[in-house]
Each structure stands twice: as structure tokens, then as C-alpha cells.
Amino acid sequence: MQRKSFLKICAMPLLAAASGLYGAMPAMAQAPVEVSFYYPVAVGGPIAKTIDGFAEGFMKENPGIKVSPIYAGTYQETIVKALTAHKSGTPPVTSVLLSTDMFTLIDEDAVVPIDNFVKTPEDKAWMDSFYPAFMQNSRTGGKTWGIPFQRSTVVMYWNKDAFKEAGLDPDKAPATWAELKAAATRLTKKDADGKVSQWGVQIPASGFPYWLFQTLTTPNGAILANEAGTAVKFDDPKVIEALQFWVDLGKAGVHPPGVVEWGTTPKDFFEKKAAIIYTTTGNLTNIRKNAGFPFGVGMIPGNTRKGSPTGGGNFYIFKKSTPEQQQAAFKFIKWITQPERAATWSMDTGYVAVSPAAYDTPALKKYGAEFPPALVARDQLPVSVAEFSTHENQRVTKALNDGLQAALTGTKTPAQAMKDAQQEADRILRAYK
Amino acid sequence: MKQRSVHAWLMLLPAMLLLVAFTHWPAVSTFIDSFHSTPRGARPSVWVGLENYQVMTQDPVFWKAVRNNLIFAAATIPASIGLALAMALWVNERMAGRAFLRMAYFTPTVLPMIAVANIWLFFYTPQYGLLERFTGMLGLPAHNWLGSPSTALGAVTAVAIWKEAGFFMIFYLAALQSLNPSLREAAAIEGASRGYFFRRVLWPLLMPTTLFVLINACINAFRMVDHLFVLTRGGPDNASILLLYHLYEVGFSFWDTAYASAITVVLVLVLAAIALFQFFVLDRRVHYK
Predict the structure, then answer these.
(1) Is residue A35 situated within a structural domain?
(2) How far is B54 from chain A (nearest CA, A)?
(3) Which of B41, B121, B238 sits opposite A263 (nearest CB)?
(4) For residue A423, which phi and psi values (nearest 5 degrees)?
(5) Domain that holds residue A338
(6) In percent, how much of chain B has pLDDT > 90?
(7) Number of domains in chain A
(8) What's the predicted TM-score (pTM) here?
(9) I need a labelling partner for A115 at 20 to 30 A (CA). Which of A42, A241, A293, A402 fits?
């Protein structure tokens, strides 16, 4: 009796599993493949509407696939949600996350390489259709882990009225460090008490100073991290020199002292408290709407070369989903990054379109002709570099950020700050050597 | 008798289930996790004993956060309680526009912290921020309040005090309203001054409220970090970092969940110790009616 009931208990799950399988198999053939898709919103505008429109358009063309876009907050909130879901076993099938999260996602064994799905020559051509600058953040160890989608870069905005007032050519932006410093000096205005009423140039340093710092290190010919994401070069003399330039702008009294807030920088520009600002292309629409004066958008001034970091988010495909779901997600990603849709996305949001083909579409060509500043980011892409990213990314980034802020607030010299940051980064990355 | 206890347990069950599932079990599992390494992809977590706690003792940012948090607590607790009491005493008086004043004082509590922080961000903005306009009129030099290490912590502390005082005021106001008016009349007949009346009558009678508010203020001093996300993100160079913010960074930016568990355990122990001290030691000295 006892034995019998024991056997019965043992058999039950087996039976249940068998009947479940039996029940599931015919259902699978008919039911659409579900693709859950997390996306963050980091810029203003009705992005949710655009995304929902894309999903609907895709499902109309692919009735066998059901894409459910899920708005997941900021980039940080989205990765927290996606990784927590991954750890509990049910991650989204695909998600847009920061391109710099690549190493974190690989270390957590959360994503699969996109190469797994590339089978036809057409797929291959699609993979090669993106700007190489964006792919730098999407590849490591010979594999592609992310597909560029909502990408941006840092550019310079200048107030043309202020240029005129200072006797500078309003249509010619400073193109080198020397020109930048000279222009900033002339643009800095002081009132009767000697208080500054308008700063010449302003580079924000709150939150993610490392990204803005790359607009100085790149022109100085320094690359902060290696491609494998296992080593950094913070104490490179070129890096220290770049930081020294930033600190010296403050010392010369043409850049606000201390750490400049990222969030208020566009407002400082509208209020004419800063004549030149460095900020993301994502602010273009905001500045276009709110600046009460003619402004210019230009490439980041160079020193030994030109250059700026890229930024923004990539598509990733999560490991813990079924092969059918992954295949469906791949199809969706391929569909959404086609030139026409990349062009729509760029015009709706202000993000940089991810492929040269997108800029050749009639819609974006027309937009660019009407509003040339929208093309500056594109023109800067050939000299752009990857956004700083390593293994243990946010920890290493924090070491660098702390060092930058220490130097900018004057608690450490640039050389000391970068030496300390290097030491801390080496300690964090020792396991990856 | 037995049936009654079954009945009691059944009544407790719904709340108990929620507490166990969302408070007690996570606390216990956090405690266990703090003795293991962080699982990373293919590498499962293993027993590491006290290593996470050793890392903590050597983590300069952790100590900076502890120091900042103590300063933050030492400033916010007395200041918000004192301010709350003063505001409550004032709006308890009979005067025109009393309801409006009460509402005005309570408004900060109603507003979400993130919204509040975004407003304060512009108060603190150099040059054209509200604070700068004010100091500018007085002829003081311009200052970057959130962007310099010497003032960043003070700036985020001020926001916390502003936010908390209105909330605590409500408790004091409720307590003041429930006091017997004959006490004031008796004191007036006896010729007691207002200060004397406050010191010898009101303050002792408000003690239970003060204890309650004090416990809340202590806990909030370690819990309120929402505004940091908007105002300073702990910067510049960790000048305004607080424990819970550091904990969030370690847990959800660095994904070092084991180390984050260890910090959580320490934080919970400290808060539990404060609460127990208040319940068992201070509580005895409080005069209840």
C-alpha cells in the first residue's frame, strides 16, 4: 500500500510533464511566438508612441510573431529590471540597454552573440551596414553582442549672438583647443563687481564625467580602454594632459569652477550663462525649441586629432529564451534598423541614425537640408570612438569619475587623480588579466 | 482557550504571510548571501565566510558614506524635529490664514522626492538659481553649491530637512490639539511665562510624540537618498554619498550583490540597535498619560 502510493507520487510529475508536452506541442505551431522587449527612455518626446507603432507595423508583416514592448524607465532602471529578470529565469527576449553594458551582460552570461543568427549573405550585409564607430561598442573577442539602435554622440553648441557680441565670426566654430580657449576667453563676460555673467565654455561633469572627458582625451589621441575591456590607460600622459586642459579652463576663469551639473547645462545655455556648451546630440530638439537666439552645432574641437565618443543604447538578445523567440527577436531587430525606420526614429527622437543608408533616405535627406545641424553628428561619426567601457564597467567608471571630479574641484592635481584612478581600476580589473 | 488562539493566529495570518514573504525571508536570505560570493554567469556563488565584511572595512567609499551619513543624521534629526515643533506651535495658534499656513508647511511632504529634487536642482544652480540670486543681492560671491565638495553634503541635507519637517509637524500638531486647554488657562492664572509653560508643561506632554518622531527621523536619516539621484549622484568625488546610495550602487550598478548584502546587514543591524535603544531605554523616561 505504502509502496504503491510512493510509486504513484513518483509517476505523477512524469505524467503531468508528458501531458503538458503533448498539450503544448500542437499549440506551439499555432500560437504566435511572444517577444517581450524592454526599452528605456532617456530623452523627451513621445517615444512610446513611435515604438508601439514600430511593433504594430512589424506584427502586421509577421503574423507569426507577437512583439510586446515594455517601457522600463531610464537606462539604469531598465538594466536593473532586465538583469533581475534574467537572474530569476525569465528575462525579456530582447532589450535596448546601454552599449557600455556589453561586458556586464557577457559577464552575467545573460546575452547571446548576434552572430548566432546571421546565416544568409543578406544578414551579413545588414551587420556591416552600421557606422563602424557604433560597432566598436558592440563587438569584443571577435563577436558581435549588440546592434546599434538609439545612439548619440557629444557635440558642441554655440550661441551665435554671443559670438557676434564678442567680435567673433558667428558662423565659424572653434575647431582646435587653442581656438576654443581663445574664443572662450573673449566670450567670458564680467559685470561691474568682477562677477562672471557669461562663461565662455562649459563642459558638464556630474553623473557621467567620463563621457564628457572623452571629448578631451579623444582629440588628444588617447583611448582610455582596450578593446577586450580588461585594461585602462588613465595615467597615460596624454590623458593627464587632457584633464589638465579642462582644469586649466577653470583656472583661467573662462569655464565655471567645480563640477558643472549635466542637467542644467542646456538651461545655462538658454539663459546665456554659457556661450559654448558640450552636450549630447539628444539635446538638439530641446535646444532648438528653447534657445531664444540663433545657435550653431559643431564638431568637438580637436587637438592632435578630431573626435568624440559615441553613446546610447544597443539591442541585445537574452540567453534564457527559446531559440524560436531569439530568432523572432533577431528578425524584429533587423526590421526595426532598416534605413527608413532608422530615419524615422532619428527624426522623431533626435538620436543619430545608425547607418549611412538611413541618411540617404529621401525623408532624412530632406530633414537634413531643412535643418543642417541634424547632420553634424553624422559628419563627426568617422572620427568618433567607442564610449568608455570595460569589464566591471560601472565600478571602473566610478573610479575614473571620482578622479575627474577630484581634479575639477581642486582636491587633487590631474596627475595624482589619474594615478589614483588607474590604481583603483587595476585593482578592480586584476581578475580579468 | 485553544480555539481562541487558533482564531488569533488565523486573524494574524494574512499580514503575517506578507511580512514573511516580503520582509523576513528577504532579510534572512540577505544575511545568508552576505557570507557567499557574488554569482557571476557561469561561476556559482560559494561560501566565503567573512570576506565581504573584510572588503567593507577596506572600502574607502564605504567609510566615507558612513561618515557622511552620521553628519547627515546629526544635522537632519535635530533640525527637522526642532523646525517641526516650532511650526506646529505657530500654526496651533488662532490666527487668520491658519489653514493655508498648515497646508503650506505640509506641502513638501506631499510632493514626490524626485520632483522636489528637480526643483531644488534649480535653486542651487550657479548664477541664476534662486539661492544665487539671493546671495548675489547681498553682494556675496557666486558659488557652485552642488558642485563643490565643501557644500554638496550640506546642500542635500538642507533638502532633507525641508522635506521632513512638514511631515513631523503634523504629528506635533495632532498632539497639541489633543492637549487639554485648561492646562494653559491654569498656567496663565498661576502667572507662568510662555517659556516656562512650554518647558515644564508642553514639552513633557509632547514627549511620546517626540519619541515617535525621533525614531522616524533616525530611520529616515539612513533611508532618504532619493534626492541624491537627481542632485549630486553622491558626488563630487563622493563628497555627498550616503550609505543607502552606496549600497544601491554596489548592488545595482556594480552588481556585486554579495557585498551589497553585507552592507545591508550592517545597515539593518545599526537601525535595529537604534530602534531597540529607543524602545527600551528612552521609552522608560517618557511620560505617558
Answers:
(1) yes
(2) 16
(3) B121
(4) -60, -45
(5) 30-150+312-383
(6) 32
(7) 1
(8) 0.82
(9) A42
